[in-house]
Amino acid sequence: MTLIQAQDPASTPEDPETVAANEDVLATPSSRRPERWLRFVIPVVMLLLLLGVWQVYVTMANVPQYILPSPLRIAQALGTDWGILGSALLVTLKITLSALILALIGGVVLAVLMAQSRWIELALYPYAVILQVTPVVAIAPLILIYAPSTQVALLFCAWIVAFFPVLSNTTQGLKSTDHNLLNLFEMYRASRWQTLRYLQMPNALPYFLAGLRIAGGLALIAAVVAEFAAGSAGAGSGLAFRLLEAQFRLNIPRLFAALFLLSMTGVVIFLGTSLISHLLLRKWHESSIRREN
Amino acid sequence: MAGNAHSHGGQTARSLVALRSVSKTFSNGTVALKNMSLDIREGEFVSLLGPSGCGKSTALRIIAGLGEPTSGAIDWPKANYDAAGRAEPEVGFVFQEPTLMPWATVFDNVWLPFRLRGMSRSAARERVMDALAMVGLEKFGNAYPRELSGGMKMRVSIARALVTRPKILLMDEPFAALDEITRFKLNNDLLRLWENFGWTVVFVTHSVIESVYMSSRIVVMAARPGRVIDDIAIDAPFPRSDEFRTSPLYNDYSRTVSQALHSAMGANDHL
Fold first, then answer.
1. For A3, which of B91, B182, B192 is closest by C-beta distance?
2. Which SUPFAM superfamilies does the entry mention (chain B) (predicted)?
3. Domains of chain B
4. Is A291 on the interface with B (CB under 8 A)?
5. Of B203, B228, B210, which is closest to residue B60 (Cα–Cα)?
6. DSSP 3-state assignment of B22?
7. Structure letter (DSSP) for residue A200
């Protein structure tokens, strides 16, 4: 323990850097406060401006609402048709989220299998690629025939599209583990499971999360596309069907309202996945470090 | 010197590990090592010095158990490690890069060797904190590697290698990527630790300055094929300090080692 004293004075040359770095971090929020306000205000002002121009144009030019409804008219449709749109939103959300969750499970499990053995990778990867590159609209009719219900068919379509980015990103992450760290684990006679759990999986996390963000958006797109292809009607129909239906009936305000809900769903999914990513990586990953220069 | 009870490189010390005519040929046909024999004795500070491609890192990795030699054998006299009841001796390894897990705190990085043996965080706490104190980082247990300077990261790496109290510490050009000031400082710190704890160090380097300053023995190697060409004992007393760096004795040894290294380079006319 006497060594500590021997080391302390000499180790100071290294310390100021760290202290200075900490001060930078502490100084960041206060010096950025005005900028943060603007970051919130500018988009809102821009949005209000656009909506205002739209509203004024439609009113002044007397545009019929079956061509282009005003923002207020769309908001009104959102209110009056909420019974239909709300339940449709729920259906679409359910399919999107279940497809996303299944895609995460499937993608990660397959990626782990492939990282374990070159043979498994050679055997499985081509099929993952084929599933990915074949347009989902083209497979949907077949799936509709084989699936026990439309809901299952939609779920399957959305899954096919969403799982690939998770699979390919996670595989990449598992494989790009630092070679020296792998050697170190080997030297300490780590089991395959320990290497996976303590080294490869944490290493793959940023890659997986990037895949998750892509998959979240794709799951929604695929759920909508599949529903277009499936054309399911009735109580179990989602936003995509309501959107098509509104178009047939020339109920353009409702079409816009459905479109608005879909966009918002996509935005919420993006924000949600970005938040998860930020929370998991903020402590250590390069992508979440703020730099002053 | 009280903490210096063990003998440094004395001929009487028993053999800790020996390479017996070890050769290593890579699958692309490169002969990384040819017929290398080396007896490392307990308590020695051995530097493997040579130009790039002389197989010094390969030799170190073979001692660490990473990759079998193509021919020859590594001999660990059983008496040295059988008491612990393990099949193979314990080694600590320090790479040229700090090689830390960026997602884990300094504490968790040093805990790793114990964690892989199934020892819980709390059970390992005392040993981990001891190792961090040895390298002067006891206050940085909760920091993440990216918050540390290059020299501090290397200290964490050394703490991780030492935490299991291995018989032998293998270092693969550990300070090559650091600036000279930090490097001299870590040279001194490593020497202090070695003088106090008396383990065995095998230190791979391409720096004459570094090897003469720290070693009790320098093994000079040549490239293409990688082989040992000289084995020089540095008979200067420990502890060594910055005074030794400017002493005539240091100069003499530097010259001797440089000449040996030069003939190692000269053996390859295409260099």
1. B192
2. P-loop containing nucleoside triphosphate hydrolases
3. 20-90+168-266 (3.40.50.300), 102-165 (no CATH)
4. no
5. B203
6. strand
7. I
